[in-house]
Amino acid sequence: MIGIGYRKDFAEEWEEHPDLLNADFIEVAPENWINVGGYWKKLFYKKLERYPLFAHGLSLSIGSPDEPDFDFLKQLKRFLDETEASVYSEHLSFAKCDNAHLYDLLPIPFTEDAVKHVSRRVKQVQEFLERPLVLEIVSYYSSLAAEMKEIEFINAILQESDCLLLLDVNNVYVNSFNHQFDAREFIQQLPKEKVAYIHMAGHLKVDDDLIIDTHGEPIIDPVYELFEFTMHWLQKPVPVLLERDFNIPELNEMQKEIHQLKYIYNKILEKTKTLC
Prior knowledge:
single chain, 9 helices, 43% helix, two-stranded antiparallel ribbon
């Protein structure tokens, strides 16, 4: 399954020309659609008649020192239930403090205290929503008061909270480039049984030693290669999403990326079947 992030930027064109994107599911940020009505709601719900929905949140802020925002969680649960969302994922980061939204996804310190805090928060959210939470490995540009490696931090949270993992291959590539570690070794240390689905996206190289996770550029060959490696490592079908958050190209350009992802995905799964 290869999906696409559903956005108003191309929603009307896709509705008029449904064959332009050969996607298997759609993903939205609930915050962008909760309480949306009228024309856009009708258009969105027409797509839900054809495609399974994955929800990928922006403002849960699982790493914040604040307690969960239960008013927001009530709205979120209603949205997930009404849309019959297959998956709800969020970012392993924080985006607000003292009830002030920071409008960015900031890294959580890689510490034992943070593992305990985040795991407790994850359990609260999962219990309230009555569904598993899927956490995404995020890109970051500096580590804060790290007491452990990033891979140790992620694995500790996955184990202690019993949540699932959204493996953003581009984010791993970005972090490995910026922080100079081996992306393949990093992926091989993750618990593959926890991987619920995969994100693929583009980034922007701004300097010889810095790239920024933008979701506004085409996927580059080294990220496709890391995706192929990841599928080899997983040896099982998982949903894969193409993310494009801004600088939206023509739909036929996005379809080329979907086609490339499907080609790699199907090739690896066929090899896996042969080996079995």
